[in-house]
Amino acid sequence: MAFFDRLNEMAKTVSEKTNDSLEINKLIGEINLTKGNIQSFQRELGEHFWAKFVTGEQFDEEAMMICDKIVAAQDKIHGMEAQIAQIKAEGEARKAEREAERAERKAAEKAAEAEQAAERAGIEKEPVPVCAECGAVLAEGQKFCGECGKPVEK
């Protein structure tokens, strides 16, 4: 019988500890919820006073220093957003440059393939005009190189 008594006692102990733990966790959850509410109220209070600051209302020196910190942080954010825009623009420019180079290589490859096909067929073909400065393929009648901008030599 002593075994069952000890087993019963252990079950009661575990049950009590579980109930205590559940109650403690419930209270901790309520505490965290209440802290979240306090932060929300503080944010509302800050937004209220910020709106007054924006309209030009003056506060005590400490409050004005806090407002100045906010303005400085906003300026910093705007500067970083401008840097992001610049980085994105530079990335797009590099991408466009790579695509143009890829298109140029493809055109040169097709011209070379056509030239090789003509040679195999025994057809005499006029040489493809290229820029004397940068070697870019030129269209017939083109007066300036589309790549380097130099005048086309006849």
UniProtKB/TrEMBL annotation:
Region annotated Disordered, chain positions: 91-122
Alphabetized Pfam families for the sequence: Zn_Ribbon_1
InterPro entries: Zinc_ribbon_dom (IPR026870)
Domain of life per record: Bacteria
Residue ranges annotated for the Zinc-ribbon domain, each copy included: 131-152
UniProt protein name: Zinc-ribbon domain-containing protein
The organism of origin for this protein: Anaerotignum faecicola
